[in-house]
Amino acid sequence: MTTKQSMHIDPYEKNWIRLSIGLLVMFAAAVAVAGFALGIQVPTSEQRVDPKTVAEVGPWANPGLRELSPGKYEAYVLAQTWQFMPREMTVPAGSEITFYITSKDVQHGFKLQDTNLNVQIVPGQVSKLTITIDEPGEYTYICTEYCGLAHAAMFGKLIVE
Ligand code: CUA
Q: Interior CA angle at 12 toward 11 and 16, to 5°?
């Protein structure tokens, strides 16, 4: 003879299960909103380069801005102890800039002050992030990973005019 019996779950346990499922739904919603509505990007490794030769061949041999079309730029930035190349860039307000940043020596960081652009710079990898800046001003970019003696002196300037 078979008896059909439902599994007994303590009411406390049931509430914890409901809460856990609720949290998962909430987290998934937060990720969806951040990614699709707010446009928050997770920096990805765009491509691999050889840190020994990256300063001599390819776009980082001549770091700086490339204008793709009016208001649309690519910025190739080379990080090294203890400076960014270029040290200064100027774009018109409202420009969309895609940064391609790599390091030729050790690990650095790249944070563009007063924006949400902040990325780790790993030798051998290219970090890519896109930003549009509408507000004119001077935006300092600083190294955010300790990279030796003159780490604090490692910065540059993006001028939006
Ligand atoms: Cu480069 Cu700190």
A: 115
* Nearest atom in ligand 1 to 151's CA: 2
- Give whole-number Cα distances, 20 to 8, 15, 28, 37, in Å: 19, 9, 12, 25
> Beta strand pairing status for 72-80 and 83-85?
antiparallel
Q: Whole-model pTM?
A: 0.78
Backbone angles phi, psi at 60, to 5 degrees: -80, -10
Q: How far is the CA of 15 from the centre of ligand 1 (A)?
A: 49
Q: State pLDDT tens for residues 84-136.
A: 999 999 999 999 999 999 999 999 999 999 998 999 999 999 999 999 999 99
Which of helix, strand or coil describes residue 50?
A: coil
Contact 43, 119 (CB under 8 A): yes
Ligand 1 center to 57 CA (angstroms): 23
Query: Cα–Cα–Cα angle for 130, 133, 134, nearest 5°?
Result: 150
